[in-house]
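dude i think i finally got it to work??
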Amino acid sequence: MKLGRLNHIGVATPSIAQAIVHYRDVLGASDITAPFDLPEQGVKVCFVNTPDGGTQIELIEPLSESSPIHGFLEKNPLGGQHHVCFEVADITQARVWFEAQGKRILGPTRIGAHGTPIFFLHPKDMLGQLTEIMETPKVTHD
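look at this
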């Protein structure tokens, strides 16, 4: 398995609206997607696109107290870096590869905010960093 590029850094926030203002007014971000709900994951998300079109910042707000992000914000009330996300070409192959190394995968493979399959690796197995693995979209040529 070959690890791809860093796709995004997930940043938990108690308010996406306030975080958007911060990224726009303090950091000069001009390309920010409209927030949308991912009810199956219990979060609202939007993406701050970097000027080079590369890595994104994923802003994540809990939809309710049952959201996994809610627990993170209880420990970090101002929010903060939640996870890093790396791309892979084949999510099934990546899952097998990490499992063979004894890495703990948190839950099933599911569809993430980019509309592609993802899974998360336990921080204790990844140098203390919650790590998302995301399959890159398949490009078809007609």
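The CA atoms of residues 116 and 135 lie 6 Å apart.
im so relieved honestly
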